[in-house]
Amino acid sequence: MTLLSTTVDETVSATTLAGVQDLPARPSVADTVSQTMTLAWRAIKKMQRNFEQLFDVTIQPLLFTAMFAGIFGGAISGNVKAYLPTIITGLIGQTVLTACVATGVQMREDMDKGVFDRFKSLPIARIAPLAGPMVADMLRYLIASVLTFATGFAMGYRPGGGFFGVLAAIVLAVFAGWSLAWIFAWFGTIGRSAQGVQGISLMVMFPLTFLSNAFVPTDTMPGWLRAFADVNPVSHVISAIRDLANDGNVTAQVGWAVLGLAIVVAIFAPLAVRSYSRKM
Amino acid sequence: MNTNSSPTPELAVSAHGLVKTFGDLRAVDGVDLEVRRGEVFGVLGPNGAGKTTMLQMLATLLSMDGGSAEIFGVDVKRHPHVVRQLVGVTGQYASVDENLTGRENLWLFGRLLGLPSRKAKETAEELLGNFGLEEAGDKPISQFSGGMRRRLDLAASLIARPPLIFLDEPTTGLDPRTRGQMWETIRALVAQGCTVLLTTQYLDEADQLADRIAVIDHGVKVAEGTSDQLKSQVGSSTLQLRLLDPAQTSQAVDVVRRVVGDEPVLTPEAGGINVPLPDANRAADVLIGLREQELLITSATVQKPTLDEVFMALTGHAAEDKSDTHDPRDTEKEPVR
After folding, report:
1. What is the pTM of this model?
2. Under 8 Å between Cβ of B188 and B17
């Protein structure tokens, strides 16, 4: 009987002083979700208590939006106001990506703390301590997107897609943040120190942001840069955000963006989970 | 269910030939360990002996490079998730969340262990009460003292009422009063039917708590037995003598041999002689013997055996220590980080 249950791997018998106990061989899906949400709660508490962790998604959108619009507006679009539909949507991509870097770095810092030793020793899904902060950080991407739109609005940006277009764009931005964060979560799990993770992450983040259509149209770039910028998932996300916010249209770009993000998740989530479990 | 799957169901821990290597270092080098259900088993050894590494392998925190282990008949390698349900681990350094309060920490771990929110709250309250932490419950951990952290950490390990508890150096760095409280807590756990596997650098701690003790050195088990059995190998206490004239050392050694019938250990200081005594009362016989030979001493003290002496007796070399001293008396004099 025991032999059967161990081969099927559903429960395993342990003989303690209290008698024979049949214990589940692995966490159920429902348990995994509940553990992930509990650890997301922990990450949100942590954000509340270390408010400086939110600077990159609060101060930065305000500062960068005003700054980039002012610097590039005249040169690229003739005047600042005409540039706003391009730069606001581009900056959402950029700010969310910056927030993703912080996700990886903070994960690395967190993993060095004693409490992660306890997470390892608990009978919880191995992915939960990784997935919890990933879920909580969606709040950061949300704050970043909303503030960027709000700053743009204050500067005179009137998105053509209306309220629902903007809402859809924000939802896409948050999903993009969550997906792209897996890249940096992977760096977080392989890096030796938080500084190291920060270093690699910035090296990856800058080309991903600047070699895209975030700030300028890609057709002025030399051929090889343009080739990269056009396949860069960040470009597709930004195009999709533009289509949603500025035109209120669910275009093929939205489909490409979602597909691109799904591919990023499909590649980097297993990598991150694997190297994380190895450390566990 | 049946006895075929676990050939030794009376054992809480059954490990054979455990090996862990880090590069060239064989941190654990073929250790066998058998812990009976309901007992307190002490693993005694100096820093770097491989105690923690061994515990971490048994708790699924480190992979095994060799050997096999079962916890209550469950294979550690094949069913890590099951083993984690059976074992509560309290580490050498408190593993609680710095960003949360004591109450929030216990609630968090309760939720992770599958308790509904309300039940997790109740359990947290109950444990805070049991561990004398109810007033500190809403303070952030950063304001906790070392002893409070350790107690909270132990409380967190008990939420799921695991039948087996691993305590990795539960009192290292604690002041004597907190240490005594920790011992009481551990005894209370055992009274409730827990099996405890603890590591320690202190012979007196193993002596106080453990039913049986394994002595580990350089990743190898050098001895195993009850505290009395181990002590009988070193004598129950030691007479530390200091001669006025170090040149008389060999004569003094002759006296000791004749009176105690055992070989004394010479300490590096000039004229220092440590005499293992089967019985503290024999100290007088040694002193009288020296007096009869007109060998003068400057000091004589009777000490309980230290880990160093157990090591000397068991391994023939001193317990090499990488960081702090492991003489319990030192800790008592200078409390705590």
Report:
1. 0.80
2. no
CATH architecture entry for B235-333:
2-Layer Sandwich (3.30)
Under 8 Å between Cβ of B265 and B256: no
What are the distances in angstroms from CA A180 to CA A40, A251, A264? 18, 21, 7
What does the DSSP 8-state code read for residue B101? B
Domain boundaries in chain B? 11-231, 235-333
pLDDT one-digit tens code per residue, B87-96: 999 877 768 8
Q: Which of B71, B85, B100 sits opposite A123 (nearest CB)?
A: B85
Residue ranges covered by each domain of chain A: 28-279
pLDDT over threshold 90, residue A18: no
Who's near B286: CB < 8 A, 6+ residues apart? B239, B241, B255, B256, B259, B260, B275, B277
Instruction: Tell me if ipTM is over 0.90.
Output: no
- What distance in Å separates the CA atoms of residue B178 and residue B204, rounded to the nearest whole number? 15
Q: Are B270 and B246 in contact (CB under 8 A)?
A: yes
Across the interface, do A17 and B163 touch by the CB < 8 Å criterion?
yes
SS3 B275: strand
Q: Do B112 and A114 touch (CB under 8 A)?
A: no
- Give dist(CA B103, CA A72) in Å, integer: 51
The H-or-E segment that residue A169 falls in is helix A162-190
Number of H helices, E strands in chain B: 12, 14
Interchain proximity A115–B91, CB inside 8 Å: no
Q: Does domain B11-231 have CATH number 3.40.190.10?
A: no
Q: Report whether B205 contacts B34 (CB < 8 A).
A: no
User: Residues A133, A39: contact at Cβ < 8 Å?
Assistant: yes
Q: Which residues of A touch B95 (CB under 8 A)?
A: 114-118, 121
Question: Residue A41's closest chain B neighbor by CA?
Answer: B108
